[in-house]
């Protein structure tokens, strides 16, 4: 889920343990949402520790991961379950509204523009995490 | 989706969206849910809303506590345990090795995430806390919160107690006195003198 990319030369990834832990916490937050009476507070707790962990170790979250976390209350945003996402506005934009606290963010819908992380020339090398 | 799961989701959804109904009425309406339509709460489309203030940390903790006490079922946390064992296996066996160095394992368990681990208390100052067993859900600076086998939630102080984690054929003992750090800061801190695990 959390993407692992290394910009260093050589295949060895620095701070690998941090990335693994972040990945685990992100999955745990998904688990807390999927529990039968939905446990929002527990998933908030996991995302909050994930955020602080990334802050302390000076690691940046991938923008696709970052956009699934509410800026205001740290709720994990899954469209249809904990947030609504609509396309509207004159320059077309997607509006993602958190159902926990009601804050919203807009993202421009432009086919030509891409995120810096998504452009193929900016990816130095991709490190695969080995599966055992 | 299976039937019982789907039903409970509907119940929860209705409870959230229907404006104040007494519980008896709600039950009646849920019984003949498929025959009669239910009036859902219509949210007023937006004029300027006041921006809510951020919750204080104290309130967040109180909410967490309330949410945890509501679902304290040991069986519900089964996927978390499964996920944790997969995660630890991935951390331990680096590069396809099958054997584990004991020195490596020490460092791994000091730095790894412990949410979802099965833990048991070996020694403690409180006698009645000894021999409790369960999975860790949340971890704070001085406390572990675990779900026990009897479907209850226990707070266990880290200080003056010794814990034990059993993973496959590894048995790790943790001395609580050295563990009194927030889980998010444990990675950066360096442990000066290891006590042999
Ligand atoms: Zn929110």
Structural features, described:
The complex is a heterodimer of chains A (132) and B (197). By secondary structure, chain A is an alpha+beta fold. Chain A has one domain. In chain A, the strands form two sheets. Chain A has a three-stranded antiparallel beta sheet with strand order 2-3-4, with no helix packed on it. Chain A has helices at residues 16-34, 40-56, 63-66, and strands at 5-6, 83-88, 93-98, 104-108, 125-126. Chain A is 30% helix and 16% strand. Mean pLDDT of chain A is 81; it is low at 1-11. By secondary structure, chain B is of the alpha+beta class. In chain B, 32% of the residues lie in helices and 19% in strands. Chain B contains five helices and six strands; from the N terminus they run αααααββββββ. Chain B has helices at residues 3-17, 23-31, 57-70, 78-92, 102-111, and strands at 118-124, 133-139, 143-148, 153-157, 161-167, 170-175. A six-stranded antiparallel beta sheet of chain B has the order 4-3-2-1-5-6, with no helix packed on it. The longest helix of chain B is centred in the N-terminal third of the chain and has 15 residues, at 3-17. Chain B is elongated, with a radius of gyration of 23 Å. Chain B starts with a helix and ends in a 22-residue tail after the last strand. The mean pLDDT of chain B is 75. Chain A binds chain B through residues 17-18, 20-21, 24-25, 27-28, 31, 35-42, 44-46, 49, 52-53, 56-57, 72-73, 101-103, 129-132, and chain B through 5, 8, 12, 49, 51-52, 54-55, 60, 63-64, 66-68, 70-71, 76, 79-80, 83-84, 87, 89-91, 93, 95-96, 111-113, 115-116, 137-138, 183-185, 187-188. The structure holds zinc ion.
The major β-sheet of chain B equals: 6 strands, antiparallel
Please name the two chains that share the biggest interface, counting residues whose Cβ lies under 8 Å from a Cβ on the partner chain: A-B, 34 and 40 residues
Assigned CATH superfamily of the largest domain in chain B: Ribonuclease P/MRP, subunit p29
Number of helices of chain A: 3
Shape of chain B from CA axes? elongated
In total, the number of strands of chain A is 5
Q: Tally the structural domains of chain B.
A: 2
What structural category do the secondary elements of chain B indicate? Answer: alpha+beta
């Amino acid at each position: 889920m959390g993407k692992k990319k290394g910009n260093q030369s050589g295949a060895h990834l620095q701070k690998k343990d941090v990335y693994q832990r972040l990945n685990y916490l992100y999955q745990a937050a998904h688990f807390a949402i999927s529990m039968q009476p939905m446990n929002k507070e527990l998933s908030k707790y996991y995302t909050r520790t994930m955020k602080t962990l990334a802050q302390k170790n000076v690691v940046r979250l991938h923008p696709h991961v970052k956009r699934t976390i509410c800026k205001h209350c740290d709720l994990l945003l899954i469209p249809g379950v904990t947030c609504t996402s609509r396309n509207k506005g004159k320059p077309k934009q997607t509006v993602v509204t958190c159902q926990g606290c009601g804050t919203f963010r807009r993202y421009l819908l432009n086919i030509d523009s891409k995120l810096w992380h998504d452009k193929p020339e900016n990816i130095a090398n991709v490190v695969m995490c080995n599966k055992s | 989706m299976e039937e019982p799961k789907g039903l409970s989701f509907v119940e929860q959804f209705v409870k959230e969206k229907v404006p104040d109904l007494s519980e008896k009425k709600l039950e009646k309406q849920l019984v003949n849910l498929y025959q009669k339509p239910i009036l859902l709460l219509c949210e007023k489309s937006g004029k300027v809303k006041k921006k809510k203030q951020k919750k204080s940390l104290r309130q967040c903790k109180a909410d967490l506590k309330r949410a945890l006490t509501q679902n304290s079922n040991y069986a519900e946390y089964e996927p978390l345990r499964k996920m944790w064992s997969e995660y630890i296996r991935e951390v331990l066996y680096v590069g396809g090795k099958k054997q584990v160095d004991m020195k490596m394992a020490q460092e791994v368990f000091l730095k790894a995430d412990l949410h979802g681990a099965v833990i048991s208390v070996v020694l403690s100052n409180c006698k009645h806390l000894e021999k409790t067993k369960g999975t860790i859900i949340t971890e704070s600076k001085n406390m572990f919160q675990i779900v026990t086998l009897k479907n209850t939630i226990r707070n266990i102080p880290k200080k003056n107690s010794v814990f034990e984690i059993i993973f496959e054929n590894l048995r790790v003992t943790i001395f609580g006195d050295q563990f009194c750090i927030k889980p998010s800061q444990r990675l950066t801190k360096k442990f000066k003198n290891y006590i042999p695990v």
